[in-house]
Amino acid sequence: MKKSLFAFVAVAFVALASTGMSGQAFAAGNTIDHIEAPEQGWKHTGITGTFDRAAAQRGLQVYREVCASCHSLRHVAFRTLTGIGFTEREIKAIAAEYTVMADPNEEGDVLERNAQPFDYFPLVYANKQAAAASNNGAVPPDLSLMTKKRVGGENYVYSLLTHYREPTAEDLAILEKKNISLGDTSYFNPIISGNQIAMAPPLIEDLVEYAAGQPKATLKQMAYDVSVFLTWTAEPKLEDRKKLGFNVMIYLFIFCGIMFFAYRRIAKRILGH
């Protein structure tokens, strides 16, 4: 009975620990054609970790000023930005900068209107064909769930953004051995499978101007901030899940304690020890 109780607690602890994990697990080592994204120090990881809201807000700025020219956030509603610290007034102002299609009027015409907090971020392109036509045949992925879709999660996003470089002679020799050649419209990046990507390096130093009192907008800082933001868009309930897991753990410890002392008392009466 004692062993069963302790085993139950151990399993519950492992389950709780898993609630603190953000994104997906890493691949077990480097693959044949790309390097593994290294772990970064994220405030939202761990059992008690919470989102760095200042970083997430800066990440939204990076998305809007850099990424939004190609990538959509179709699963994110403006009203949910309260989750990273924006006020209702600020959200209303952000939404008003976008236009969405209104309901048909009495004549059946569909006109544009300013977005409201209950709307979702509008699509950048009307369809995949339009997206491909504007990007040399490549369709920019939606970023809403990017850190959930990619092995490595936010570490993958951060590393991808910070590892663009010109290939060395050694890099080219390795690619040649794999029968891989860089296309005329491709860029070298050792993080991605195949080592080449159609997206040009999106971030350069001081590309975005952060507000006074905020960190300098270095390439790494912007990559960090937008990675935090995209982790939140993929897991907006992460903190709630951790709180629930913590409360469940407390309940399980109390329950196991009650069961243990009840067992001792019943065993003493029945078995006489």
Task: Spell out the blueprint of helices and strands.
Layout: H1 2-19, H2 53-65, H3 88-96, E1 99-101, E2 112-114, H4 128-133, H5 146-149, H6 153-162, H7 169-177, E3 187-188, E4 196-197, H8 219-234, H9 238-271
Helix pairs in contact: 1-9, 2-8, 6-8
Strand content: under 5%
How far the N terminus sits from the C terminus, by CA atoms, comes to 15 Å
Query: What would you report as the Rg, rounded to the nearest angstrom?
Result: 24 Å
The number of helices is: 9
What average pLDDT do the residues reach? Answer: 85
* Overall body shape: extended
CATH class of the domain at 26-51 and 141-234: Mainly Alpha
Order of helical and strand elements: HHHEEHHHHEEHH
List how many beta strands DSSP finds. 4
Can you walk me through this structure?
The chain is built from 9 helices and 4 strands; from the N terminus they run αααββααααββαα. Helices cover 44% and strands 4% of the residues. Among the domains are: 1-22 and 238-273; 26-51 and 141-234, Cytochrome c-like domain (Cytochrome Bc1 Complex, Chain D, domain 2). The protein is mainly α and 273 residues long. The strands form 2 sheets. Strands 1-2 form a two-stranded antiparallel ribbon. A two-stranded antiparallel sheet has the order 3-4. A hairpin with a 7-residue loop joins strand 3 (187-188) and strand 4 (196-197). Helix 2 (53-65) packs across helix 8 (219-234) and helix 6 runs antiparallel to helix 8. It is extended, with a radius of gyration of 24 Å. Residues 1-32 have low confidence and may be disordered.
